[in-house]
């Protein structure tokens, strides 16, 4: 059963589970409690903090644990906007940011007197730094959000360049590194990042925990108030077991970064080669081969966003699911339907093209067998689905020939007209 | 032999829920699909009103979980918008009274989905419609009060051969009892009656937002102005209320003339028609509608009347009615029956009055 949806959620790594189990089985303890079990829980939390800090080149004291990447992005966006004067609540975000950033920014516009400009991207989904510079308002821009690598197409972003521009304008840089934290990795200090968002479950840790890494001395407004945990920036009892799993996954991701990235790149190239044999007309979205080095940052090694011209993603996904292959379309709306991805639209693709895109994402447990089975399943699915130039249309009811009462009615769809 | 595959269109209502569950019980390899037909923001949705709300998708998903079948949500917003919603507004703008459910079944829900299901390796498509398919022919539902064969008349033999309508054999109380027996959470879900994309039921208001105000005159058959109106699309042939005129005897809409934004009204006797012409006519046996006697239904819940079918060629048929029929609106479906068997039908395009000069 090949699982190629790591970018949505990676399976829990056995080492992460092993780190979590003792804390789940042990008698309950609050990491803030002043007794033996409490100290043990706190020790697990602080170990995790060190492991997560090491993953991104930060000091442990910079790590603020959250409920996940979404909360980290929200705290980064809203927290920095609310810390500024009402006249200085301008935001700039790349057009391909995750909705956790974009919708938080829209909230700031609607509810906190903020304003928002989107920085354009090129056809590969890479932020245009000139466009970003033009959107900045020195003295008024509070925050610039540029992710490390895009979650839908994998393209690495010029984070260091964006940070430099942001700082020149007196703004902070928020970098959503939810996908990139493992491989290719991020360098907080080297890239000049002020706020960095992480999620445990993309690394093989559990869902429900993440972190915002905060540069020291930075003014941030908390969103959750209560017991004052996490230096007052994020109240709430810390989930020691989940954080231990996060720490273990972060530790592995750091240790395996180089070998993991190279292995995923090989697997991805093997998959792309197999798929190109099955469908020479397929189109690669983004820039999966993007190399590291200024001003470019490496793309996600395990991510492949492909457009199958004339095939609906929904149809391919159903056939792949039936064959036991798990992957996804670029994005899904609340109802679960495949919707046209804002990332692909920002890259200049049309809505129809966006609906022909499937995302394959590999991770720590992926094997050559997974890739080969997926290639075979795609081949089978493409053999079943006729390519159609147009998006589906039900049969042409206005055609009199199809509706003649006196001649045998034509009840078959016109060839290729219906998918 | 592996079980046959069926795709079930699950709206989130009780009927399609039970359809899916019954097919699974019968040993079919069932897959559920919910068609997302509108981009209504979640916060703007009225609970239990209209279709394709998030709550409906959730209900369909949880029923699929209960049955233990794969479930998908497919985005049909564009197709539905073009084929059904835009068509609905355009038909009203032309002075007609369309039937969006028939249009949806023809373009999206049944015919469109059938072709797609076949491509994806399904042997059949099932829906929660109340109608019966036997030996490749379409019949009225067992529950006459719930019968929906009227909105399925356009299906042909190729489609009927692959369509399953499991609840068509059952009464509504039986369907609800089955849902309860199987623990489906939609068992007590209320019916939806309105046009699904106009959840508040205010069709005139919806059309006004789409088409804008188009003021015009309400006139009698001699062309004398009796009053004014804000849009001819607000009127349907046979309508008596809301004409905004004072007259000694009840007046009815006889014709809607969008070109001059004229609404022609007259006496009830002038409303009577003896012949009706259908366009885009089709026969459920695929062989074409043949001359001879039949019974016709000219609106969703209207009575049926005897008629003589006269094929005209070019997808048109004329129906010579056995008795005058009052208030036949162009745009509605005319559906022909032989007892419980659906012969076929078409869209009403023209009528001829029983009384000369009407």
Question: How would you summarize this macromolecular structure in one to three sentences?
Answer:
With 419 residues, chain A is α/β, with parallel strands linked by helices.
The largest sheet of chain B, given as strand count, sense and whether it forms a barrel, is: 6 strands, antiparallel, barrel
> What is the fourth-level CATH superfamily of the largest domain in chain B?
HUPs
Q: Based on the structure given, which CATH architecture of the largest domain in chain B is correct?
A: 3-Layer(aba) Sandwich
Largest interface: A-B, 38 and 48 residues
Briefly note the structural class of the backbone of chain A.
Answer: alpha/beta
Major sheet of chain A, described briefly?
7 strands, mixed
**For the CA atoms, what is the radius of gyration of chain A?**
23 Å
What is the CATH topology descriptor of the largest domain in chain A? Aspartate Aminotransferase, domain 2
Assign the CATH architecture of the largest domain in chain A: 3-Layer(aba) Sandwich
Kindly state the percentage of residues in helix of chain B.
10-25%
Rounded average pLDDT of chain B:
90
Distance linking N and C termini of chain A: 27 Å
Physical arrangement of strands within the biggest beta sheet of chain B: 12-15-14-13-16-17
Cα-to-Cα separation, first versus last residue of chain B: 64 Å
Q: What's the number of domains of chain B?
A: 3
Look at the structure and give the CATH class of the largest domain in chain B: Alpha Beta
DSSP summary, beta strand count of chain B: 17
């Amino acid at each position: 059963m090949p699982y190629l949806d790591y970018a949505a959620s990676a399976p829990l790594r056995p080492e992460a589970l092993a780190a979590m189990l003792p804390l789940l089985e042990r008698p309950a303890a609050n990491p803030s409690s002043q007794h033996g079990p409490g100290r043990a829980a706190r020790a697990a939390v602080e170990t995790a903090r060190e492991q997560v800090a090491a993953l991104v080149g930060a000091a442990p004291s910079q790590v603020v644990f959250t409920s996940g990447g979404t909360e980290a992005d929200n705290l980064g966006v809203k927290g920095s906007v609310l810390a500024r004067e009402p006249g200085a609540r301008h935001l700039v975000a790349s057009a391909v940011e995750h909705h956790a950033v974009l919708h938080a920014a829209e909230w700031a516009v609607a509810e906190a007197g903020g304003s928002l400009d989107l920085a354009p991207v090129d056809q590969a989904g890479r932020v245009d730094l000139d466009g970003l510079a033009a959107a900045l308002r020195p003295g008024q821009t509070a925050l610039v959000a540029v992710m490390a690598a895009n979650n839908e197409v994998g393209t690495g972003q010029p984070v260091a360049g964006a940070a430099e521009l942001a700082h020149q304008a007196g703004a902070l840089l928020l970098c959503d590194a939810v996908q990139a934290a493992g491989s290719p990795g991020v360098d907080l200090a080297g890239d000049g990042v002020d706020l960095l968002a992480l999620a445990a479950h993309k690394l093989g840790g559990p869902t429900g925990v993440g972190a915002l890494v905060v540069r020291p001395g930075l003014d941030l407004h908390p969103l959750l108030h209560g017991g004052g945990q996490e230096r007052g920036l994020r109240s709430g009892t810390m989930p020691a077991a989940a954080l231990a799993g996060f720490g273990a996954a972060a530790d592995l991701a750091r240790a395996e970064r180089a070998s993991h990235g190279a292995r995923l790149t090989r697997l991805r190239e093997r998959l792309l080669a197999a798929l190109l044999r099955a469908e020479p007309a397929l189109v690669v979205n983004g820039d999966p081969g993007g190399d590291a080095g200024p001003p470019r940052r490496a793309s996600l090694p395990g991510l492949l966003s492909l457009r199958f011209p004339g095939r609906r993603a929904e149809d391919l996904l159903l056939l792949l699911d039936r064959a036991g292959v798990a992957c996804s379309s670029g994005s899904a709306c609340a109802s679960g339907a495949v919707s046209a991805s804002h990332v692909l639209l920002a890259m200049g693709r049309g809505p129809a093209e966006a609906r022909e895109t499937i995302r394959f994402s590999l991770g720590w447990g992926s094997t050559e067998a997974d890739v080969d089975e997926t290639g075979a399943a795609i081949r089978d699915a493409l053999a079943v689905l006729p390519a159609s130039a147009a998006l589906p249309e039900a049969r042409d009811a206005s055609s009199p020939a199809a509706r003649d009462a006196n001649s045998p009615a034509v009840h078959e769809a016109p060839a290729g007209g219906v998918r | 032999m592996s079980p046959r595959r069926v795709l079930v269109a699950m709206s989130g209502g009780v009927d399609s829920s039970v359809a899916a569950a019954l097919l699974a019980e019968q040993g079919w390899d069932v897959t559920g699909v919910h068609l997302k037909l509108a981009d209504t923001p979640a916060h703007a949705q009225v609970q239990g009103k209209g279709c394709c709300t998030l709550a409906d998708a959730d209900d369909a998903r949880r029923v699929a979980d209960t049955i233990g079948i794969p479930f998908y949500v497919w985005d049909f917003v564009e197709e539905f918008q073009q084929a059904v919603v835009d068509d609905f507004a355009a038909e009203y703008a032309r002075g007609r009274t369309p039937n969006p459910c028939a249009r949806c079944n023809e373009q999206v829900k049944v015919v469109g989905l059938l072709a797609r299901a076949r491509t994806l390796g399904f042997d059949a498509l099932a829906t929660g419609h109340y109608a019966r398919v036997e030996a490749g022919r379409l019949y009225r539902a067992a529950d006459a009060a719930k019968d929906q064969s009227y909105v399925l008349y356009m299906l042909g033999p190729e489609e009927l051969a692959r369509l399953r309508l499991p609840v068509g054999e059952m009464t509504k109380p039986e369907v609800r009892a089955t849902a309860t027996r199987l623990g489906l959470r939609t068992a007590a879900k209320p019916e939806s009656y309105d046009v699904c994309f106009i959840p508040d039921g205010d069709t005139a208001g919806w059309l006004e937002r789409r088409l804008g105000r188009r003021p015009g005159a309400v006139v009698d058959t001699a062309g004398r102005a009796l009053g004014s109106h804000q849009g001819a699309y607000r009127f349907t042939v046979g309508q008596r209320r809301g004409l905004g005129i004072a007259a000694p005897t009840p007046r009815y809409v006889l014709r809607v003339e969008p070109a001059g934004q004229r609404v022609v009204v007259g006496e009830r006797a002038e409303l009577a028609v003896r012949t009706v012409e259908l366009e885009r006519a089709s026969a459920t046996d695929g062989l074409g509608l043949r001359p001879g006697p039949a019974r016709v239904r000219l609106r969703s819940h209207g009575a049926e009347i005897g008629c003589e079918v006269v094929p005209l060629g070019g997808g048109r048929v004329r129906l010579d009615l056995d008795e005058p029929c009052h208030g036949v609106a162009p745009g509605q479906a005319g559906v022909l029956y032989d007892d419980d068997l659906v012969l076929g039908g078409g869209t009403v395009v023209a009528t001829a009055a029983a009384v000369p000069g009407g």
